Amino acid sequence: MLDDLVARPSAGLAVRCTRALLSPWSRLALLVLMLAAAATTVLLLEPQRLIADGLPHRLSGGAAVVLFGVAYGLCTAAFVPRPLLNLAAGAIFGSQAGLPSALAGTVLGAGISFGLGRVLGQDALRPLLRGRWLKAADGQLSRHGFRSMMAIRLFPGVPFAAANYCAAVSRMGWLPFLLATGLGSVPNTAAYVVAGSRAASPTSPVFLIAMAFIAVSGLGAAAVAWRKRHGFSGREEESEAPAESGAPAGPVAPTPRATGAAPAPTPSPSPSPSPSPSPDRTA
Fold first, then answer.
1. Are 121 and 25 in contact (CB under 8 A)?
2. What is the tens place of the pLDDT at every residue in 220-239?
3. Residue whose C-alpha is closest to residue 55's, from 75, 77, 78, 71
4. Do the beta carbons of residue 132 and residue 85 sit within 8 Å?
5. Can you list the alpha helix ranges (DSSP code H) found in the chain?
6. Is the pLDDT of residue 84 over 60?
7. I need a labelling partner for 235 at 20 to 30 A (CA). Which of 27, 55, 115, 254 fits?
8. Which phi and psi (to 5°) does residue 266 adopt?
9. DSSP assignment letter at 127
10. CA 87 to CA 197: how far, in whole Å?
11. For residue 77, which of 164, 146, 145 has the smallest C-alpha distance?
């Protein structure tokens, strides 16, 4: 019996500790620590040296392409800018081998970020979606996941890692997210890879065309963002105008003076009959 009394408090303590460690905020703290450690490691390793130094001489062929794709995915999950990695892929492998490696790394990095955000951050962050902008973005990603993510990938206005973690907090499915990422990332990834492969000859027509496409896509992203922002602001002002004036949002019925009709006379109350005198019973 004494052993049972000692085992019960220890078992309860273990259950409470397990619940605390698996709580939404504990998982979110773990995600923040993991991302901070990954970003610190990337800063110490300096992946931008790949553009100038290239891969080690011991790595070559298909193994180097696969290894670069895996490193690409891990770096994008740690907030390394994709344009830098795409330029490195083109400079090291050329456009034919660099483009498949960069696209595979893009999908891999997006899947890693989406999985980490969905498992470790969604339960803690979803109750915080209270602002109008946050609710609108969450609703758009949840209802139209493939279309929204395709637009984000085609127009490079939102940072890659930020889009991944925002999609993870929403209710978007895995398949629409990965398909939209793979298809929507092709144009800009190809442009950067081609530019990196022709960086040694910056006056060549291929390099100039690639850079022109990058500039046009950036301007298109800015124009779309400006239009969406002003459209949302206009709808917000229209919804707030009736509330501020205190008038109902629906149409107001015309008054008799506005239509020119005379107001109907109000009936005067009829006088109540006076009570008849009661006969004198003592007469």
1. no
2. 777 776 776 665 555 555 55
3. 71
4. no
5. 2-21, 24-45, 49-53, 61-77, 82-116, 122-125, 132-143, 145-154, 160-169, 174-184, 186-197, 205-245, 256-259
6. yes
7. 254
8. -85, 130
9. G
10. 7
11. 164
